[in-house]
Records
---
Amino acid sequence: MHPEIPDFNQAEPRSQWAARWRDELTLNVLPWWQRQIFDAEGRVLGARGNDGQPREAPRSAVLGTRLLWAFASAQHRLGATAEGGRAAHRAWAWLNQALIDPVDGGVFWSVDGDGRPLQPHKQTYAQAFAIYALCACHAWQAKDDSPALRQALGFFELLQAHAFDPADGGCWEGRMRDWRPLASARLSDKEPPAPKTMNTMLHVLEALTELLRHHRVPAVEARLRELLALFLDRIWLPGQACFGLYFSADWRVLTPDVSWGHDIETAWLLVRAADVLADAALQARTRTLAVQVADAVLARGVAPDGSVLGEGRFDGSVTDERRHWWCQAEAVVGFWDAWQWGGDSRHAQAAWRAWRYIDRHHVDRAGGDWFKTLDPQGRPLDSVPKAGPWECPYHHVRAGLEMIERLAPAS
């Protein structure tokens, strides 16, 4: 074992790492977001740069829903604080007053600073994150029949009615404001046209996992089983040892692109879904796959310094050498998850090395929070804001919460 890598079979290194994660969340990450993402009236800002200065940008549903998820989850899982409670209430109000469509339901893709719709269409990805955030809000509100849970179930019904493909399964990428079909619903201009994507499917699966955890509804369970089967049988490409990213309506893979960050993230989320379903056969399949995915990402998507690369192709070539914060955060959880199920020390070591890269390069000790995107030499790219339409606290807060809980002594 490398001298810098602790022996995680021992309790002390695990407790020390858990304490470091707790400090990172409570002393650096969460305070920055609680203080920096709202204006004086409590509205969500569009963006802030690495220099701490506000930038003008649309107020995206991605940012708004993930803020609510992060603040509510921290209140529930780390312990309530006054500042955290104010932030969670502000994010809850922003969702209800600005992002939710009062006429046709669902959340808008983006609004302006006053909550007026800029892109009013209904991206399935955004509806999924609304469900995910509302489930966290329900846990924080600690009521059997909370307003947040009722809203989450309402969002699920909208997806049931408008987003799922009854012929070939899975979800369409988006719909118009009134839920009629939308010809092109890409998440960004960087993506190729595709009626279905792994990324959207993954976060619908994640949202339904949490909804089922809090409320056992047969229709939710059926959809979650369907999505999990699609990941195992269609989206996972065993010949390429990766998940496909972009698909036709009938699940033909459209590009040879690989996202190693998404691969390692998907692996542990599939395990989580199988665990919530409490299906022994699916648990066995997803845990086996988690180890296979970790091996594949470790072989092709991890740099010598332990960081996860941006993207590549089926042939192993790298097309994005930048280091993105979310890839590193997901690598910590995903590699650790694989070690928990497979017992291969290489995976625990990979989780630790990803963390060490984060700690040395992404964490902004002077300005707070993390730098979101770095060049191959580990230098922050100021063209990518610290907070923005896609730059949010979701991935690293979730990684911290997961690791604090996974590193805790067995009860």
---
Amino acid sequence: MAQAWPKAKPKLTQDAFDEAVASNIEDFDMSRDEAIRSAVEEFNVQGYDLSGVVTNMAGNDLQSHPIAVACQGLRDACGGQGSLPEALEALSSSLQASTPESSGTAGGSVPSLSQEASIIAHKGGAMQALLEACRQLQNKTDELLKALKLLQVLLGWLETRDAFTEAKARTGVELLHDLLREGASIPEAKTAVATVAEAAARQVEEAKCRLVDSGTVATLLEQMQEPNAPLDFLGAACGVVRSVTTADDERPPASKAFMHARLLAKNHAAIRVLLGVLRRVPAAEEPGTACRVLGTVRQVAANEEICREFTDDGGVMACLHVLNFNDAHVLEVESGPTGLISDLLGFNKRYAPFRECAAQRDVCRACLGALRQLAHSDTVKKLLAEAGALDQAVHCVELHSGSDDVVEAALGLLGNMMLRQPEICAKAAVAGVADVVVEAMQRHAGRAHVQRQACLVTRIMVARNPELRPLFLERGAEALLRAAKAAHPASCRDVGSAALRDLGLDNYND
């Protein structure tokens, strides 16, 4: 049965909110602050959506706000009345003045606008004006980059992202495609375009569909294959591919994320492009970009066929080398009957930049996540087991035993590898997986996602291998499983009971 999302709340208008505040002041003799608080509480109780209302400026003339004035100035400049560069600078300054100090821009991150600033910019037509400015500035790189940066800032708010897709004349998506093909002639501009596309697609299904249907994502995949494509662009382009293959918009009844993954893999060689990028990125020096590539691989590898294609081209071994696996062991496996890569020396040299990355938590987690997705394929399960991935997953947990997200990802990989594979379960026992499970449950007792994966791994290991039951029982697994069920009933009651049952214990439902 399909999931039914909750009915959307009715949107409250600014006029209705202002009227309620004025009524509170006049009829109940409230101060302005009291009147605003009372109106907010009342409309929340009535079930209204206040996301489009500037609550702390109720009754004021929004058109006189500096952001609204700057938006009008930009619209005028786009119509030939004024200087575009000056209008962009004015809008940038007004937005920056309304940016919470805590958001900052350290490390090149995009500042987060306050809700007030986002609403005023949206009502002032900033999105449409910036799109028009980008069209007029295609051959002026510095000004174009500033306009694209402002677009990215505005796209932090959901309603602005909707406006980006619904813009009049040609949509924002079509503009981005034009810039990629013709207007963005330098790498910095292409990177900025890809970054805007990723921001626009977040939690907006319509934008995802238009990015794919317009050919924008296909163009990005083509440009990712260019030998001189900079790493910043590769990371941003991966972000777009990942966005369109992620179902994160709860408003429509269904998502096309899975269809997009199949389409991009089949018609545009997306998984092979990603493997080529993974081979290029020096993960030790560029961990952020490596994480983005691996996260995108995880999303695109949506079915057995895609997983097999990635594996046959050497993708699984590429991921293992990101985790600094033993080269000699991998080469021995690759020279065997699978024959995935013929030039062993070339293979070893190709992945040399990836060594010593398992100690980097984010890279380790991203790589485990990609392998976890690939391990849904029975063929990949066996290849991973032969290549020593069981030992590598255990090693990752040892390196990051205090990081619940890495532990959860490692347990998820182990569970997928062993599912319906009794021979791999036996190897896992030798690799010390039972110890890993018990220690994870003890260390992360308060983390429901870790506890759930630990319950699943326990059940998978003993369901078809009853001889492994003592490994868990002697280590106190029963008490840990019952504690997980009690502490996290929503996540662990079902899997915890199943694990207790397969351990041969009575009263497993208690």
---
Amino acid sequence: MQTIRQIAMLRDAIAAFRAAGESVALVPTMGALHAGHIALIEAAKRPGRRIVASIFVNPRQFGAGEDLARYPRREATDSQMLTRAGCDVLWAPAVEEMYPNGFATTISVTGVSDGLDGAARPGHFDGVATVVAKLFNQVRPDVAVFGEKDFQQLAVIRRMVADLDFGIEILGVPTQREDDGLALSSRNIYLDEAERPRAVALPRALGVAAREIGRGGDVATAMAGAHDMLSAAGFVIDYVALVDAETLTEHPEPGRPLRLLAAARLGATRLIDNVAVDMQASA
């Protein structure tokens, strides 16, 4: 695996892949890799396809008081994991390479970015859209792979790709979980020994509510139950929301695909999760 830190060298590597008739997949990450990231690499693999993984802790998607300074950085370990997974290129630019002096452009995707985490973390998705657009222009992939755990992020990226005619296939990979159901996340390392067992209340609360709604139960009652489960476990809730799985609008029309999303804090750690609502659950 090549580790590349300059855009000119990255473009040379991509040009060599193209000259050999190979396609390119991009797996964007912020490092601190775990099995969920490796699942993205595995999903990207195809005969004749090269895989580029990026590691860049993007300062533009962290707000005031968020965990930019303490966000885990462990490139040596991440590099070993990517090599074992069969990645071809690690694209690991410095902040100065990504945002050189005088950088003045921001991409904003309205609609899908307005509520949920967009409301809880103002400016977050502008930072996400801007850095992902830059990664797309730097790597110029045929396909880019993202996890469904960051479901709103995935929706923002899909909207941006459609609106700006990037011509890139966006592949969403189902959330990878621990044995007890907790979604894999780089931020899970922040949970202490007392918090970690209680964190599983997040996927459990969503699962219970999603099954109740899928069986035709009262939505308000199911949502109140999720709130109660999370509060009992010690979470401070940012939101629990039932939305249209494509537009992320609340109060979706009958017959539309549904997704239940939540964000909540346990101690100093903010966790997010989501589950699909199967309206055939009663069948």
